[in-house]
Design a protein that fits this description.
The structure holds two protein chains of two kinds.
Chain A (H helix, E strand, L loop, with lengths): L1 H8 L5 E14 L4 E16 L4 E5 L6 H8 L7 E6 L2 E2 L5 H10 E4 L13 H11 L5 H14 L16 H13 L5 E5 L7 H18 L2 E6 L2 H7 L2 E6 L2 E6 L1 H6 L4 H8 L2 H6 L44 E4 L2 E3 L19
Parallel strand pairs in A: 3-8, 3-9, 6-7, 7-8
Antiparallel strand pairs in A: 1-2, 1-4, 4-5, 9-10, 10-12, 11-12
Chain B lengths: L3 E12 L2 E13 L4 E5 L6 H8 L7 E6 L2 E2 L5 H10 E4 L13 H11 L5 H14 L16 H13 L5 E5 L7 H18 L2 E6 L2 H7 L2 E6 L2 E7 H6 L4 H9 L37 H5 L5 E4 L2 E3 L9
Parallel strand pairs in B: 3-8, 3-9, 6-7, 7-8
Antiparallel strand pairs in B: 1-2, 1-4, 4-5, 9-10, 10-12, 11-12
């Protein structure tokens, strides 16, 4: 898969995110005055190429879902740029957004709440086609059956209601619905987190086959490092709203650079079992996950075992080791500083 | 004498869709000082089994012995004594703490119920357990909502430890927690085990956590234990095709990806397949498997499996 990612590098990115900032106001009191601000996403930059799977990983509150929702225009970014196929989405006029919404689809974590319980599966699958006026009822019917077959469910399921399906089946239906409009981008936000490992593997394999067949780009948002290792072409690790490391999965697991990434790997029982260099007891990351309320310095400083006084002065810039490898920590090794990460081909 | 044992334990529920056979003939033993993992997919009956062992749910059939005493049909009054010795930690630490009580009140409650000491003694016990599980001393006067998920799980662990139990049934204690916090809680459980000489029955869907944490592992499928082995053996020489499929499904960065090892979904426990209950999803199933339920047999000391073809698997 990495080879295909490199081939596509020569091409134009499908999505390019530049210096994305998304903040939320915290409201308090009877009149809802603004009492603070959560810096959900701060200065995040990356590219996604056609046919590529990008994984966004991190723990709760790291901003990975907000990045996804910002790309999908569900959350409004405060600043930065999101280009889809070369067209700027932030502040774009309605017709541009309408076309984008046809070409980019999202699959959510909870397959129970993301299907209307009063619609049959056929109605759910036809709904997006109807909204985007994709032809006569017969055409849409045929398409619905075809979609269901793609996710390995039989056409007899079309007449049933969501309650008749298991979690894994529902998630396959959600994927079928996301495919209804032949999207070029699928954003899967913890789409397999609530499923059993056996079902997880089925759903991810399906998504991966479809990605290859249809040359879609996939953004995989997950907290599961194992999923990242096996299904991603490129990984972005986030902490407290910022990108702290970017790497190819092989590099990330064999040689994690950022202290947070290292911490995550050595806190993972699965990886402990599989990588001898991580042997020994589980190493916990001390403290708790901070909410991203903008403070000076490195966001990981309070939990970092190798923090120095200078870490509190400014947010460490992303340093590029290779074009594929970026890390936001000056103390990993003698890396070369690239002044403006925004100009890199990521 | 084992700490707790169950033989041919069944817990069935009557529902609109028919009889739900959640736990359907389980034999198990937990020895003193042992950490036993119980793994399986959602709906396989592992949580019901845990609750049945605690008598939170009444078994339909079978026998549970705790330290040699039959507790299968003890009345609530006599159960109280046993309950002191068997505690439970739940998955959702928020749902299992009363939001209107302070941590001090929550932790004092079991001591009051079991009449453990005078008021100042109880206070001292609570303060010392709070320190042991790594919570700040001022936690006593605070409410559950003021704590993060990991800290709430620490409160749950503190509550389980108060009465010095012999056995703690941990039902998915870390699956709601972030990775960095998960490691903190697992390490705390290991420490507490050493300090209090505990045994754990550790229920989890996450094989890697079980592999890291347990001495022995039970694999459950549709209400039955299908394989039991010590941790090392299970991982080096799994015999049941279901165990193998579960292991292969765990994404593993150190080996290339394989095709999804198991097709289809878990059948409903109200409609358990004939013969071997796994045969509908098993690639090795023969005619025998479709007709005859395999017995849970010992294939070598300490390693049991319920499969007709287990000996032919490489």
């Amino acid at each position: 898969m990495n080879a295909s990612a490199q081939m596509t590098d020569a091409r134009r990115p499908l999505v390019s995110v530049r210096n994305l900032v998304t903040r939320f106001d915290l409201k308090a009191g009877l009149f809802g005055h603004v009492s603070g601000r959560v810096h959900a996403v701060e200065n995040v930059t990356f590219d996604i190429f056609p046919g590529e799977t990008l994984a966004l990983v991190g723990e709760s509150g790291c901003g990975k879902s907000t990045v996804a929702r910002s790309i999908m225009q569900l959350d409004r970014p405060r600043s930065g740029s999101i280009r889809f196929d070369g067209t700027e989405l932030i502040g774009a006029p309605r017709p541009v957004l309408a076309r984008f919404r046809r070409e980019a689809q999202m699959v959510f974590q909870d397959p129970f709440s993301s299907l209307n319980p009063r619609m049959t599966i056929e109605q759910s699958l036809m709904d997006p086609m109807r909204v985007h006026k994709l032809g006569s009822t017969e055409v849409m019917r045929a398409r619905a059956a075809e979609l269901l077959a793609k996710v390995e469910l039989s056409p007899e399921h079309l007449e049933r209601y969501p309650h008749a399906f298991s979690g894994g089946q529902r998630q396959r239906i959600c994927i079928a619905r996301a495919l209804a409009l032949n999207p070029r981008l699928i954003v899967a936000d913890e789409a397999v987190a609530s499923l059993d490992v056996t079902i997880q593997a089925q759903v991810l394999d399906l998504l991966d086959t479809l990605r290859r067949e249809l040359q879609m780009a996939v953004v995989l948002i997950t907290h599961d490092l194992g999923v990242v290792a096996q299904w991603a072409d490129k990984v972005v690790v986030m902490y407290a709203g910022r990108k702290v490391e970017q790497a190819l999965p092989g590099d990330l697991f064999n040689d994690p650079l950022h202290p947070y990434t290292r911490g995550l790997l050595s806190a993972s029982p699965r990886l402990k079992n599989d990588f001898h260099y991580l042997s020994g007891p589980l190493t916990e990351i001390p403290g708790s996950i901070v909410s991203a309320v903008g403070e000076a310095g490195c966001p990981f400083k309070p939990r970092c075992r190798q923090a120095r006084a200078s870490c509190g002065h400014q947010v460490p810039p992303l340093i590029a080791q290779t074009p594929d490898r970026l890390v936001a920590c000056p103390f990993t090794s003698s890396l070369k500083v690239v002044p403006d990460a925004a100009h890199l081909s990521l | 004498m084992p700490l707790i044992s169950a033989s041919d334990l069944k817990t069935h529920y009557k529902t609109r869709d028919g009889l739900l056979r959640s736990v359907d003939g389980v034999d198990l033993v937990v020895e003193r000082g042992e950490t036993v993992g119980l793994v399986g997919e959602s709906g396989c009956g592992k949580s019901t089994l845990g609750k049945t062992l605690l008598r939170l749910v009444d078994p339909t059939e079978g026998r549970i012995e705790f330290k040699g005493e039959d507790i299968t049909s003890l009345d609530q009054g006599r159960l109280r004594n046993v309950r002191k010795s068997i505690q439970m930690i739940f998955q959702d630490p928020f749902a299992s703490l009363n939001p209107r009580h302070t941590i001090g009140e929550i932790l004092e409650a079991p001591l009051i119920v079991h009449k453990a000491g005078s008021k100042p003694e109880r206070r001292r016990t609570v303060a010392s357990i709070i320190a042991k599980v790594g919570l700040p001393a001022d936690a006593i006067n605070r409410y559950p909502h003021e704590f993060s998920g990991g800290q709430r799980q620490r409160i749950g662990i503190a509550r389980a430890l108060l009465l010095h139990p012999d056995l703690i049934v941990c039902d998915e204690p870390v699956s709601a927690l972030d990775l960095s916090i998960q490691a903190q809680i697992l390490n705390l459980l290991v420490e507490m085990k050493k300090e209090f000489g505990l045994s754990y029955l550790f229920i989890s869907h996450d094989l890697s956590v079980v592999r890291y944490f347990c001495d022995r592992v039970l694999v459950m499928y549709l209400g039955r234990i299908v394989e039991s082995a010590d941790n090392e053996t299970l991982w080096s020489d799994p015999r049941h095709p279901y165990t193998r499929a579960l292991m292969a499904a765990v994404p593993d960065p150190s080996r290339p990806r394989q095709a999804a090892p198991l097709g289809g979904d878990l059948p409903s426990p109200s409609n358990i397949p004939s013969g071997c209950r796994f045969h509908t999803r098993c690639s090795l199933a023969t005619e025998l498997c479709r007709v005859t339920e395999p017995e849970f047999r010992t294939i070598k000391p300490g390693h049991q499996v319920a499969c007709h073809v287990a000996d032919h698997i490489n």
